[in-house]
Amino acid sequence: MINIHAGGWFHGDKAKDEDLATRLAQEGYLVIVPNYRLTPDGVYPAGKQDILFALEWLRQSEYSFDRTKIAA
Fold it and tell me: What is the pLDDT of residues 28-48, one digit of tens each?
């Protein structure tokens, strides 16, 4: 599961979702919580591209999971 923190592409940080990600992991899910570029440093679609990069990274990772079942 890719847990994308909220923030409208201009604020937020993955640290705020630590509790949720931990709870999901305790339920047996493989969870990643990527940060992404925020404006003004990264104008949209930079943040979206970062999330897509995280998806590809996950697909290519050595983690053991069903690659046909990735949720965001």
Answer: 999 999 999 999 989 989 999
As a whole number of angstroms, the distance between CA 49 and CA 31 comes to 19
The answer to whether residues 14 and 47 touch, using CB atoms and an 8 Å cutoff, is no
Give strand ranges (E) for 14-58: none
Cα 11 to Cα 27: distance, rounded to the nearest angstrom: 28
Three-class SS of residue 6? Answer: coil
Contacts with 46 (C-beta within 8 Å, 6 or more apart), sequence order: 36, 37
pLDDT in tens, 2-27: 999 999 889 999 999 999 999 999 99
Do 59 and 67 touch, CB atoms closer than 8 A?
A: yes
Model pTM?
A: 0.89
